[in-house]
Amino acid sequence: MSTIDSTNVTTTNIRATNVQDASGGNSSTPANILAGSVKAWVTFDGSAGTISPAASFNVASLTDNGNGDYTVNIDTDFGSANWCATGLCDAAGTAWGGMSFDNSAVKTAGTVRVQCWDDVKNSSGHLNPAVVDVMCIGVQ
User: Fold this and answer.
1) Three-state DSSP class for residue 36
2) Among candidates 55, 140, 132, 54, which has minimal Cα distance to 100?
3) Whole-prediction pTM value?
4) pLDDT per residue as tens digits for the range 57-91
5) Positive or negative CA dihedral for 22, 14, 55, 120?
6) What's the order of all strands across the beta sheet hosting 132-137?
7) Apex CA 113: angle with CA 107 and CA 116, to 5°?
8) How far apart, in whole angstroms, are the C-alpha atoms of residue 122 and residue 128?
9) In the list 48, 89, 94, 140, which could disulfide-bond 116, CB 3.0-4.6 Å?
């Protein structure tokens, strides 16, 4: 086994079968790292007249489908529809609120539809919160 000891290394491609921390522990394979990394995320103001990302990574655009109902369009699609999305939204100043994924819209390799709700403030259960965050993890 060889050891390279250097302060600065510049390379184009690194091929590794195992990645460890400086003490030689906490092993991970490149496949584990790639599958478990956040591949897309976005934060936006759902109460704005026209929604747009305040900050994002790998998100092509957002679609406002109506009150508290948004589609996140991913720039680089996942390898299939079998990936994980999670998120949150604020409760617009009430005691509670939440986010769910729309069961009428099938999650695809490149989109996920989310709905923010608050049964206290809105008879339809949906609201346009000031903070909407969505994060996507999976294999691309």
Assistant:
1) helix
2) 132
3) 0.79
4) 999 999 999 988 999 999 999 999 999 999 988 86
5) negative
6) 53-57, 38-44, 132-137, 84-89
7) 140
8) 10
9) 89
